[in-house]
Specification:
This is Peptidase. The chain is α/β, with parallel strands linked by helices. The chain has two domains: 23-407, Alpha/Beta hydrolase fold, catalytic domain (Rossmann fold, 3-Layer(aba) Sandwich), CATH 3.40.50.1820; 413-652, Jelly Rolls (Sandwich), CATH 2.60.120. It contains 18 helices and 24 strands. The strands form three sheets. Strands 12, 13, 14, 15, 16, 17, 18, 21, 22, 23 and 24 form an eleven-stranded mixed sheet that branches. A ten-stranded mixed sheet has the order 2-3-5-4-6-7-8-9-10-11, with helices on both faces. Strands 1-19-20 form a three-stranded mixed sheet, with no helix packed on it. It starts with a strand and ends in a 7-residue tail after the last strand.
């Protein structure tokens, strides 16, 4: 068991200045990134073979600085690797698109449109001026500054031979061989870094945790902290995203680069690898998910194997995340697990989705663009340039409902865990819900029981927006961020309006007394900030099958007063706890991390429901076992409450 470093309510609470720092450094990095290039052009080699020890051949595209005639320079330079399952031609296309947009001066206006639909779409599009697209694959400006970039199709994808293993041990060994290959090239000075978004950030962190020889630094954008817990089996439930994503990768394997085909560059065994496992892994996953068991979803060793070993990372690592990322604010969970000297590990997290990396960066009064940070990071740790990025942060976050802050650590050490009790007494502020309960400092006076109505879920919900990487922006702000549509069939518990600003900072836990009428129950919980006009913005979410309520104490986090802040629920084979119909049971439901300002006049709300499709999909047997319904039990002798670390007023830097 881990005890969180939160103060007791009896300790003095110092005033902490958390204003964003490093503006002068950020300006310096931006000037450097946007300044004159060291080399005038970029040389592109489209079909490079990397022969692995087992005979598998990976295919790569290599981009090198070139002179005015397009001839690659002879100088040895640091190499940056991007290992992708999405077909290296896609990253090349993204780079081509970025060049075209820059050439014709196409950009996203600094002043967003007033139309709600266009506003949210423009926020997603700000991944372009925020540097997100430049970090996806190929960054011409970075190459011309003196780097080699290589984009490689991982085994079994794109033009590479073999069978795709999705992060498995074979793929991890491949990564180590690719790093060694890069170091051995005549154009490499011996320094190698890895970078990428999503999948490519995860395999970068895997390599760092595996301490791959020769790997010098990592720049990871929107990674996962634990692929089972964050996405594939949150609270024991599957997700609609996985089979769709796996299907997309499986189909993409059949689309090699046209240039590879023309040049005869398809690796030997390419067709055999695809015929051997074209879609069967996807089909297996779907059927195993529907029936709730199988070698893929129950393979605990596989999930342990594919999760990066953050505790073993020793090289400089930069992690960027977003509050509404499909993986949740995983960057902050990673922060809890990495222990390195100051400056060698940096975290930035901001408002945004998986599909809008960097959308909040490069604006006045905020951190620089994502591509600027990427260059500064590699300049420092691969070239030895003292540019001060090791003195930035180490935790830089855009507070939910607030501004930018620089923290020495997360959660805020001055945060005090506090209980917010659930009560059936009406708050008077949620008439649209199945139950308008209250959230306060005292347990309820009497016992009540409240049955949940099961609603299948809504396209217009914040959980769906997270799952769809923000692509539901076409529905406008109400569909993307306002939880009230989702709350209509839920039980809600809303606090009184804040009389002064306060902050919630850290992991959250809902301690909930429940009763299942059958042998299973599925619980979906979110915590929202409610504005005076009723707008309910989701801050955190979580889910749990009642049969997965057991807690692994060794991996869990408790506050100094003993309450769970982050309970860890095992979701592997043979780790279910029977649910006795009609008997009250207490659950501790783990919610995603937050750092949110609750402004004067705003309220905190707990939202409880029995479903949230398509984000969470219990198996058919689990759904059948829960068909008789479930209830929340509000009992003064065994109260239900939200545990949240809070900081009041000026001590949170919000005065």
């Amino acid at each position: 068991m881990t005890t969180a470093k939160h103060r007791s309510v009896r300790d003095p609470l110092p005033v902490v200045d958390t204003a964003l720092t490093g503006a002068d450094l950020a300006e310096q990095w931006t000037v450097t990134a946007d300044g004159p290039s060291r080399y005038p052009r970029v040389s592109f080699t489209p079909n490079v073979s990397i022969a692995l020890a087992d005979g598998t051949v990976l295919k790569a595209q290599v981009f090198r600085p070139a002179d005015a005639d397009g001839i690659p320079v002879a100088e040895r330079l640091p190499v940056l690797l991007n290992l992708t399952p999405y077909n290296k031609s896609v990253t090349h296309l993204a780079a081509w698109l970025l060049r075209g947009l820059r050439r014709f001066g196409v950009t996203v206006p600094d002043v967003p449109p007033k139309n709600p639909r266009l506003f949210e779409l423009s926020e997603l599009a700000r991944a372009l001026p925020g540097g997100g697209l430049a970090t996806f694959g190929v960054n011409d400006a970075l190459i011309r500054s003196g780097y080699v970039q290589a984009v490689i199709d991982v085994r079994g994808t794109g033009a590479s031979s073999g069978g795709w293993g999705m992060f498995n041990d074979v793929e991890q060994r491949d990564t180590a061989e690719v790093v060694a290959w890069a170091q051995a090239q005549p154009w490499c000075d011996g320094s190698v870094g890895m970078y990428g978004i999503s999948y490519c950030s995860i395999n970068s962190l895997q390599a760092a945790g595996n301490r791959v020889p020769g790997l010098g630094a990592v720049f990871a954008v929107e990674p996962v902290s634990d692929i089972s817990r964050d996405l594939m089996k949150t609270g024991g439930a599957q997700t609609f995203f996985m089979p769709i994503w796996m299907l997309a990768v499986a189909l993409g394997k059949w689309l090699p680069s046209p240039s590879d085909v023309v040049r005869g560059g398809i690796a030997p065994g390419w067709l055999a690898g695809r015929l051997r496992a074209p879609l069967n892994r996807v089909i297996r996953y779907i059927f195993e998910g529907l029936r709730g068991r199988g070698t893929l979803i129950d393979n605990d060793e596989y999930f342990r194997q594919i999760s990066p070993r953050f505790e073993d990372i020793e090289i400089p690592t930069f992690v960027y995340g977003a509050w509404d990322d499909i993986f949740g604010p995983a960057a902050l969970r990673i922060h809890r697990r990495i222990s390195m000297p100051d400056g060698m590990f940096q975290v930035i997290i901001n408002e945004g989705y998986h599909g809008s990396p960097g959308s909040q960066l490069g604006r006045p009064d905020g951190p620089p663009r994502l591509d600027v940070l990427q260059r500064a990071w590699f300049d420092k740790w691969l070239k030895g340039i003292d540019n001060g990025i090791d003195r930035y942060g180490p935790v830089t976050l855009q507070q939910q409902n607030g501004g930018w802050h620089t923290l020495e650590t997360y959660p805020r050490p001055e945060a005090v865990p506090q209980r917010f009790y659930l009560d059936a007494e009406p708050s008077g502020f949620a008439a649209h819900t199945s139950l308008d309960g209250s959230l306060g400092a005292a347990a309820p006076r009497g016992r009540t029981e409240h049955r949940l109505r099961r609603r299948p879920g809504l396209l217009k919900s914040p959980t769906t927006s997270r799952l769809m990487s923000g692509m539901t922006a076409v529905l406008g702000t109400p569909g993307l961020k306002d939880s009230r549509y989702f709350e209509r069939g839920a039980l809600t518990f809303t606090s009184a309006a804040a009389t002064e600003p306060w902050v919630v900072s850290g992991p959250l836990n809902l301690h909930l007394r429940t009763r299942a009428n059958g042998a299973e129950a599925f619980w979906v919980v979110s915590v929202t900030d409610v504005a005076p006009n009723g707008f309910s913005r989701m801050l955190a979410e979580g889910a749990l099958l009642a049969s997965r309520r057991a807690v692994d104490e060794a991996k869990s986090v408790r506050g100094v007063d003993g309450d769970y802040l982050s309970p860890w629920h095992p979701t592997g084979k043979g780790q279910k706890t029977p649910v006795e119909p009609g008997v009250s049971t207490t659950l501790d439901i783990d919610l995603t991390e937050v750092d949110a300002m609750i402004k004067t006049g705003h309220r905190l709300r707990v939202v409880i429901s029995a479903a949230s499709l398509p984000r969470y999909i219990p198996s058919i047997p689990e759904l059948w076992a829960s068909r008789q319904g479930q209830s929340v039990v509000l009992d003064p002798d065994q109260p239900s409450y939200l545990v949240a670390p809070v900081v009041i007023g000026a001590r949170a830097g919000v005065a």
